[in-house]
Amino acid sequence: MFRLMGRAAALAAIVMTFHGAGHAQAPASGTPMIMVVPAAAGSAPDIVARLLSDELQQRLGQPFIVENKPGAGGIIAVMAARSAPAARANTLLFVHAAIATVTPLTYRAAKFDLATDFEPIAIVADTPMMFVANPAKGPRSLADAIAQAKAAPDSVALGSTARGSIPHLAGVLLGQMTGTQFNNVAMNASGQALQSVIAGDTAMSVDGIAPLLPMVKAGRIRALAVTANRTLPGLEGLPLARDTVPGLELTGWFMLFANKGAPEARIQEINAAVNAALKSPDMIKKLQNTANYPVGGSPTEAREFLQSEKAKLARAVRQAGLTPE
Questions:
Q1: Which of 215, 233, 303, 320 has the fewest CB atoms within 10 Å around its CB?
Q2: All structural domains of the chain
């Protein structure tokens, strides 16, 4: 049913294809492109950014430099990218969903709006969340979980990663969209939430698919549903959450931006290169090996998607009682 290789092994293999943590392989000539990434070298966002930059430099004929600027919820990276000249769009910003949607709502210092301060180029890839349960003590399906929570509010413990994370907000949305009250237990790390549901301390958990699939395959936990908006290769046997809860679609996605004021022709040129890269069989395979799936599309589609995600997650943030700190 599942054909996804271990995420750690896949990331390690891909990292070895790059020579040095700061630079993607580049042609000898051309004006350098800088891709600012608000994550540490070797992290999941960094790996996807480097896969993309390696493809783009070949298609655009320019060397790419990946600049890792982790910390402060992504604020450091966003501000650095925003200060770059927009004239030729030679500085790009590569961000994941939480920075674009949640950080501005939960960090007082986040004085930015990616929808207005930048120009969306394309959605690069996404990875769905997965609801799982303890095989002995948890619900047998997502519908069963909802029924239990409706019958006895707060009785179904739903573990997730840190408050304000995409997995945590997926759990909040589940309750919000079904009119039920789950006992959302946000933990410090993904591993804690996983161990808690395996041990039966929580009936359910929600996280990205990468850390959960091996445990599903081993029978340690039961997969209830994935929050993708489509059936994904290798995950055909898993139910989609939206089939039980219409509209329950939430992924950890990556988007590429240029600075506000970048020439439209340049944005379209980069967008075309991104879409071509995402059709490359090698790129598709490498993304899927890290539990990510290519998306692509036009800048207009990226902008509309961003606005929709901002509205959806703003509702979840309010429901969760999160306030700026």
A1: 233
A2: 7-127+251-320 (3.40.190.150), 129-244 (3.40.190.10)
